[in-house]
Amino acid sequence: MSEVYAFIEAEKTTFGVALLCRLLKVGRSSFYAWRSGEQARTARQAADHALAHGITVLHLASKGACGVPRIHAELRRHGHRVNRKRVERVMRERGIAGVTRRKRRGLTRPSKKAAPAPDLLGRDFTALAPGMKLVGDITAVATGEGWLYPATRMDLATREIVGYSMADHHRASMVVDALRMAAGRGGLQPDCIAHSDRGSEYTSGELRRDIRALGLRQSMGRTGSCYDNTAAESFFAVLKEEIGTRIWPDRATARAEIFVFIETFYNRRRLHRHPVWGYVTPLETRQRHEQGHTLTA
């Protein structure tokens, strides 16, 4: 029937709607109802096309990493009042999808001699304010020169990477450097918890001495339980999927790109879902904590 109505629409200026409807045995009211609906459908298609363009821009800006939740949040942040289900439909129809994280192989090698610290988090990866809880981990990325090992420290209140280091080894000195960077940025509270797995780098005497000197408390998850340090491990899953590169030509290139990913994208632009404030970046989360502290002071 739509073809009949489309024919009438195309020929109405030549023969008139009444004559065409009578010859084709359709009601004029039905034709006008179809035309009204067709106009609405055309308008919706045009709106979907414009929405798809905006989604594509955001998706490309994230290097193909963003899925429906963060695309929807980004659109809302840019002033677009759009339903999440509509964003999901438009992305599905056009084959736009975020990355799917793959399981990664950890570097944890427990020390057989050093006694581990107690688990002070108990899988509670939340914090009331910045500087109260830090989590740390190490991963390996492949380069044409061999492995590069990044180590990080994340603040659980903001999900901000406040300390990091990279080296061609994963000895204790690199996790010490990441912790010192976190402390150097300021804002760590007395008795701040420094949590990690039980890898030999984290049970080293060198790290223990630094933790005591900084007035922090060391905490460790159980051996073989990735869930005890999942917040720290999740960052490297994000990095490896969203940065896009699988093998860098050399360590210097990998180091530079990881630095840019942390400082310009992850900390300042990547949205995280906060239980109170919705989708905000780690930097915005820290700023809101600081504003709240100023107002109550």
Give a quick set of tags describing it:
single chain, 297 residues, alpha/beta, two-stranded antiparallel sheet, 9 strands, 48% helix, HTH-like_dom, Integrase_cat-core, RNaseH_sf, IS3 family transposase
Provide a brief overview of the structure:
With 297 residues, the protein is α/β, with parallel strands linked by helices. It is built from 10 helices and 9 strands.
Give a structural overview.
By secondary structure, the protein is of the alpha/beta class. The chain has ten helices and nine strands. It has helices at 2-15, 17-24, 28-61, 68-77, 84-93, 172-184, 205-213, 230-242, 251-266, 282-296; strands at 133-138, 141-143, 146-155, 160-167, 193-196, 217-220, 247-248, 272-274, 278-280. α1 (2-15) crosses α2 (17-24). The chain starts with a helix and ends with a helix. This is IS3 family transposase.
Could you give the topology of this structure?
Blueprint: H1 2-15, H2 17-24, H3 28-61, H4 68-77, H5 84-93, E1 133-138, E2 141-143, E3 146-155, E4 160-167, H6 172-184, E5 193-196, H7 205-213, E6 217-220, H8 230-242, E7 247-248, H9 251-266, E8 272-274, E9 278-280, H10 282-296
Parallel strand pairs: 1-5, 2-7, 5-6
Antiparallel strand pairs: 1-3, 2-3, 3-4, 8-9
Helix pairs in contact: 1-2, 4-5, 6-7
Q: Strand fraction band?
A: 5-15%
Helix content: 40-55%
Along the chain, the helix and strand elements come as: HHHHHEEEEHEHEHEHEEH
Report, as a whole number of angstroms, the end-to-end distance: 71 Å
The overall pLDDT average reads 86
Total strands: the figure is 9
What is the 3D shape?
Answer: elongated
What oligomeric assembly is this protein in? single chain
Please tell me how large the radius of gyration is: 27 Å
**Biggest sheet statistics:** 7 strands, mixed
Individual helix count = 10
Low-confidence stretches: none
| Structural class by helix and strand composition | alpha/beta
